[in-house]
Amino acid sequence: xxxxxxxxxxxxxxxxxxxxxxxxxxxxxxxxxxxxxxxxxxxxxxxxxxxxxxxxxxxxxxxxxxxxxxxxxxxxxxxxxxxxxxxxxxxxxxxxxxxxxxxxxxxxxxxxxxxxxxxxxxxxxxxxxxxxxxxxxxxxxxxxxxxxxxxxxxxxxxxxxxxxxxxxxxxxxxxxxxxxxxxxxxxxxxxxxxxxxxxxxxxxxxxxxx
Length: 210
Known about the structure:
single chain; mainly alpha; 2 domains; 10 helices; 0% strand
């Protein structure tokens, strides 16, 4: 009987030891699952279109990593599970974020395009003053048209990536707006003023000498 009890106690002790050893194992499976969710979120565009959700998920991931380093495997396991869910949430928010970015970029583009049309109307009004700037205007008009088409393509594919192109187009509008304002503000020279500045003719000089 005593021998049987002894074996029973040994069996229980071994079982408890196995349970404890099992609990002490690093939660590698949960970590890999969370890492996979993070990679999927980033590759899906969460770093551009769901930044707040992605940052929140990364904080949970960092907590899990810290707990892992401290060998707090039970806590780390739970944190990795929460991190996975948070990264999945960030990935799911990408489409809504992308649409919002697209709407914002499209509104900016429409404003820029309207600004350029106003400039085109001004160049016609200031046709005489534009004589020395016709070549520059023609070159920039072509560049603007090409840039506008490119911006529209970028907004459809990657609205966040369209910002530098929109900034370039806005800079072009601002540049010509400043040029045309200065032209409009410059005083026009009257025909009388032009004649007054003409040098005296040789005949007039001879009369003056006599």
